[in-house]
Amino acid sequence: MKVAIMGAGVIGVTTAYYLAREGVQVTVIDRQDGPGLETSFANAGQLSPGYATPWAAPGIPLKALKWLLQRHAPLSIRPDGSLFQLQWLWSMWRNCSPARYAVNKERMLRLASFSRECLIDLRRDIGNHYEGRQAGTLQVFRTHAQLQAARRDVEILDRLGIEHQLLPPEALHSIEPALAVHANALTGGLRLPLDETGDCQMFVRDLAARCKSLGVRFLFGREILSLEREAQRVRHLRLRSVATPSIEERIESDHVVMALGSYSRGLASQLGLSLPVYPLKGYSLTVPISNKSAAPQSTVMDETYKVAVTRFDQRIRVGGMAEVAGYDLRLNASRRATLEKVLHELFPGAGSAGEALFWTGLRPMTPDSTPIVGGTDIPNLWLNTGHGTLGWTMACGSARLLSEMIRGKKTSIRTEGLSLSRYRDSNGAIRPRPWQAAPAH
Ligand SMILES: Cc1cc2nc3c(=O)[nH]c(=O)nc-3n(C[C@H](O)[C@H](O)[C@H](O)COP(=O)(O)OP(=O)(O)OC[C@H]3O[C@@H](n4cnc5c(N)ncnc54)[C@H](O)[C@@H]3O)c2cc1C
C-alpha cells in the first residue's frame, strides 16, 4: 500500500512513522526544506494531556471581552476581512455551553491520553531525543478567583481519573525551587505530575530520521498545488518546486493524508470539503539560560497571561497567547514584551532575553478545539489536522489511530466524534458552512 502524506509537521511525521513501521510505503511532501519548520517549530514544549481542555469553555465569551481591553491579554481579535473568521468565531462561541464543553473535553482527553501512552511506547521503542523531561507541569495562580476556578477543574480531573495536586503557595517551591512565589503573591498552583515537556521540533527531526531508516521518502521544497480527482478518488497530487517554480511533478498513491496544519482548509476546499480550521496565531521566545539555579525545572504555566515557561537543557521556551487575525506572520513587539514580562516575573535572572529567538506560529484550530482525525466522503482521502493548542500532545495518538483506520484495522480507541462527520447535517452531507456545526453526537 502506498500513502502520500501532505505536510511534514509533527502531525505528518508521526503519521508517516506509524504507517511505515507497519510496512506501508510512505511519501511525505512539504514546501519547507526540512521537517517541523512551521507551527511545530517553536511551540511551548508541553506534552500535557492533563491540560487538554477546549478553549471554547463556559465563561470565555465574557473573559474575551475583558481581554480585548487589556495590554498583556492572552487573546486578541483583529478582523482579517474574511467571512470565515466571523463564522469560526460564531461556531466557537456556540461551543462554549457547558454541554458542548463536556463533549469536547471528553474527545480531547480521549485522544490526548491515548497519545501519552503511544509516546511512552515510542520512547521505549526508538529512544528518541528531544530534550524531554518527565517532571510534570505546574499551573500557577495569581488571584483567589483563579484558585477557586481550579477547584472546579479538579472535580473534572477527579472524575476522569487524572492524577493532580492542588498546592498552596508555600508548597510551590518544593516543585519549582526558583519560582518567585512571594514577589508575585502567587495564591497556589495545580500540578499535573504525569505531564511531560520537550522540544517539539527536535522530536520531529529525530522521528523523521527514524522514518527515513524505515524507507519513508521525504520530498521537501515542494509546494502542493492541487489534488486531482478521478472518479471518486484522489488520483494525483500536483507539486511545484519551491526553488525552481517551472518544475512540476505529479505523485500518485493509494491513499492521501492531509496534515497541512493551518493550511489544510485551502486545499480541502478544492475537493468541496469545508474544514473549519482557523489559523490561531501564537508567539514564543527561546532564551539561552544564563543562570541555571534561577531557571525552571519543567513547565510553569502562568494562568493570568496563559503563558507557559518551559525548561529545555540549556534554554527556556516561553510561549502562548492567541490572536484571531488570519494568516499574518508578522512579529508583534508588544507580544514579546508580555513573554519577557512573564519570564522576568516568575524566574528573574534565569535567561538573557536580549539573545532570545522571537517566533510566531499559526495553530490549526477547530471551533470545538478537537482535532479532525479520520476519513472523508472521498474514500482515499484522510484528514489529520486541526490540532490547535495541543498538537504535539495529541500527535502520536492521532497518528497511530489514523494509521489503524487507513490499514483497516480495529482501532485502539473509540473514534466517535473525531472525524469531519461531526459536522454532517441531518441529510448526510458535510455542511458547507462550519458555523452551523455544534452537534451533540
Ligand atoms: C505559540 C504556540 C505554542 C504552542 N504550544 C504547544 C504546546 O506546548 N504543546 C502542544 O502540544 N502544542 C502546542 N502548540 C500547538 C502545536 O504546535 C500545533 O498544534 C502543531 O504544531 C500543529 O502541527 P501540524 O503538523 O498540524 O502543523 P505544522 O507544523 O504547521 O505542519 C504543517 C506542514 O504543512 C506544510 N504545508 C502547508 N501547506 C503546504 C503546501 N501547500 N504545500 C506543501 N507543504 C505545505 C508546512 O510547511 C508545514 O510543515 C503551540 C502552538 C503555538 C503557535
How does this structure look, described?
The relative contact order is 0.21. The protein is an alpha/beta fold and 441 residues long. Helix 1 (10-20) packs parallel to helix 10 (391-406) and helix 4 packs across helix 10 (391-406). Strands 4, 5, 6, 7, 14, 15, 16, 17 and 18 form a 9-stranded mixed beta sheet that branches. A hairpin with a 6-residue loop joins strand 11 and strand 12. It has helices at 10-20, 60-67, 83-94, 98-126, 144-160, 172-175, 200-213, 264-269, 333-346, 391-406; strands at 2-6, 25-29, 46-47, 75-77, 137-141, 165-167, 188-192, 196-197, 217-219, 222-230, 233-241, 248-252, 255-258, 278-288, 299-302, 307-311, 315-324, 357-365, 372-375, 381-385. It binds flavin-adenine dinucleotide. Residues 7-12, 29-32, 37-40, 43-46, 223-224, 259-261, 263, 282-284, 308, 319, 361, 363-364, 385, 387-393 line the site of flavin-adenine dinucleotide.
Protein traits:
about 450 residues, alpha/beta, FAD/NAD(P)-binding domain, D-Amino Acid Oxidase, Chain A, domain 2, 9-stranded mixed beta sheet, 6-stranded mixed beta sheet, about 30% helix, disordered C terminus, binds flavin-adenine dinucleotide
How does the SSE layout of this entry go?
Elements (H helix, E strand, L loop, with lengths): L1 E5 L3 H11 L4 E5 L16 E2 L12 H8 L7 E3 L5 H12 L3 H29 L10 E5 L2 H17 L4 E3 L4 H4 L12 E5 L3 E2 L2 H14 L3 E3 L2 E9 L2 E9 L6 E5 L2 E4 L5 H6 L8 E11 L10 E4 L4 E5 L3 E10 L8 H14 L10 E9 L6 E4 L5 E5 L5 H16 L35
Parallel strand pairs: 1-2, 1-13, 2-9, 4-17, 5-15, 13-20
Antiparallel strand pairs: 3-8, 5-7, 6-7, 10-11, 11-12, 14-17, 14-18, 15-16, 16-17, 19-20
Helix pairs in contact: 1-7, 1-10, 4-10
This protein binds flavin-adenine dinucleotide.
